[in-house]
Amino acid sequence: MTSAQPITLAATIERWPIAGSFTISRGAKTEAVVVVAALSSGIHTGRGECVPYPRYGETPDVTLAAIDAMRKPLAAGLTRAALQSAMPAGAARNALDCALCDLEAKSRQARIWDVLGREPPRACTTAYTISLGSPEAMAEATAKAAHRALLKIKLGGDGDAERIAAVRKAAPGCELIVDANEAWTSSNLERYLAICADAGVTMVEQPLPAGHDDILAHVKRPVAVCADESVHDRASLRGLRERYDAINIKLDKTGGLTEALAMADEARALGFGIMMGCMVATSLAMAPAMLVAQGARVVDLDGPLLLAKDRVPGLRYDGSLVHPPESALWG
């Protein structure tokens, strides 16, 4: 991308209330804290949104500082390709990478998929997440969402058998996937996988802690197992081939759309199924992920559905069907 004007950067921390609360095995939160980067060429402005993740040592302030540190390189003409080596993978690079993509598309007066040589994205069905809680609370939440085709169930270790049974009873016709967020152990792994299989669960996400998942290569896996915390970018793929059947790609882990698209291509070549995941965030964070979601085995882009309100304009959701972004939002 070339521009007659140097690129200027503005970055802000935003807080978006969650409808109720969102609970996983590592804790609960009542708001989504995001960092938004806006890059202006003087005529056009491109935006990108990221979610700092404490699991990887990221905070909003640290992420904001990392983005601000790129102000001079961006003004000097830092390209999206050069950004990949100028910053490590993570939330800060994601915001800038997606903002550069958006700016490039707007500067060319084209859609980003045309700029990148990709097929135009189509609407796809997203999972809807049921937060971790007691079996009774999860069953109640599931019953309210049982009209949706695909539910993602957050689990937490002790009591998961009862949670799975309660959820399945409340939603007998839904496809279920579960996410243990590293909460299972080598001693209960096979039991919980068997329980999931008996309940008709089609995928289990990150059952064991990253770095302690070797046993997955040596046990029977009656349900497809998907890596999340164990996989970040292309460099982490090859070591997982014997342990996992699929990988969860998230833009905040890969450090942006550029690496996410390349990672998806390589993962498919290695035989992995693709899950396109997200953090709890607004439609601005989901929009770039729609390009990676095309052809994915599982799409989990429900972040805006979990908020009390989304940004305007946002993505269009018809129930669980999420549509590609309009250019006013991104890309």
Commentary on this structure:
- The protein has 331 residues and is α/β, with parallel strands linked by helices.
- It has two domains: 8-115, 2-Layer Sandwich (Enolase-like, domain 1), CATH 3.30.390.10; 124-322, TIM Barrel (Alpha-Beta Barrel), CATH 3.20.20.120.
- 30% of the residues lie in helices and 23% in strands.
- The protein contains twelve helices and 14 strands.
- It has helices at 60-68, 71-75, 80-86, 91-108, 112-115, 135-144, 160-170, 189-198, 251-254, 257-269, 283-286, 289-293; strands spanning 8-24, 27-40, 45-50, 124-125, 128-130, 150-154, 175-179, 201-205, 224-227, 246-249, 273-276, 298-299, 317-318, 321-322.
- The chain has an eight-stranded parallel beta sheet with strand order 5-6-7-8-9-10-11-12. Strands 1-2-3 form a three-stranded antiparallel beta sheet. A three-stranded antiparallel beta sheet has the order 4-14-13, with no helix packed on it.
- Helix 1 (60-68) packs across helix 4 (91-108) and helix 6 runs parallel beside helix 7 (160-170).
- The longest helix is centred in the N-terminal third of the chain and has 18 residues, at 91-108.
- It is globular.
- 48% of the residues are buried.
- The mean pLDDT is 95.
Work out the radius of gyration: 19 Å
Assigned CATH superfamily of the largest domain: Enolase-like C-terminal domain
Q: Rough shape?
A: globular
Proportion of residues in extended strands? 15-25%
Helix content: 25-40%
**Structural classification:** alpha/beta
What is the CATH topology classification name of the largest domain? TIM Barrel
Residue runs with pLDDT of under 50 for 5 or more positions? none
Please provide the count of β strands.
14
- CATH class designation of the largest domain: Alpha Beta
Return the string of H and E elements. Answer: EEEHHHHHEEHEHEHEEEHHEHHEEE
Number of domains: 2
Largest sheet: 8 strands, parallel
Give the number of helices.
Answer: 12
> Main sheet: which strands, in order across?
5-6-7-8-9-10-11-12
**Averaged pLDDT:** 95
